[in-house]
Amino acid sequence: MKPLDRKIYLASKSPRRRELLRQIGVDFELLMLRTEGPRGPDVSEDVRPGEDPLEYVARVSNEKAAFAWKIAQQRRLTLRPVLTADTTVTIDGEILGKPASQEEAEAMLGRLSGRTHQVLTSVAVHFHDVAEQITQVSQVRFARLSPEAIRTYCMTPEPYDKAGGYGIQGLAAVFVEHIDGSHSGIMGLPLFETAQLLRRAAPACITT
């Protein structure tokens, strides 16, 4: 008898999402989307006019999942559930993306200093006719940061591939005064919600 295929496709470049999936025993293969190049990204992450953060993060994760599922079909790959996620940081209703420079990273962290912001991570799973999506929202309060602490942190490589300019799993953990929500969601993949999605869309792929 052929063994049951319990793998999923993970359409994400994030090493943190890979670690988190392994933590809950989900077996996966990478199915990478193009993020740059002459033809541009497979899925645009530009914010549309009038789009609020919840709408934005849900749309991007769903579009990534739909595109990755299409790629799997076009390449005649073994058809497995496709999981994608998108994370954004927002404060005062404004989306903070990934900083492009040290100056921009310092400005972002200065804005978050001593205040509460929101981290939104939307997870989507597509598999045949099933399209499931859920968004987890965490409230994160930063301690008041000195300009020197911000400058020192922004001289490391850590802020520049992360929404909001910081990684809670890294050096910036010492900035966090309080969390109301999901630590793994702030890292980029809320594990409780992800397990819920997989149980609904592809129960064979989650054993815990």
Short description:
With 208 residues, this protein is an alpha/beta fold. 32% of the residues lie in helices and 24% in strands.
How would you sum up this structure, described in words?
The chain is α/β, with parallel strands linked by helices and 208 residues long. The protein has one domain (8-205): Maf protein. It contains six helices and seven strands; from the N terminus they run βαβαββαββαβαα. It has helices spanning 15-23, 53-74, 102-112, 147-154, 183-187, 191-201; strands at residues 8-10, 28-30, 82-91, 94-96, 116-127, 130-142, 176-180. Strands 1, 2, 3, 4, 5, 6 and 7 form a seven-stranded mixed sheet that branches. Helix 3 packs across helix 4. The longest helix is centred in the N-terminal third of the chain and has 22 residues, at 53-74. The protein is globular and about 50 Å long. The chain starts with 7 loop residues before the first strand and ends in a 7-residue tail after the last helix. The model has no long low-confidence stretch (mean pLDDT 93).
Please give a handful of descriptors for the protein shown.
24% strand; alpha/beta; single chain; Maf protein; 6 helices; 7 strands; 208 residues; seven-stranded mixed beta sheet
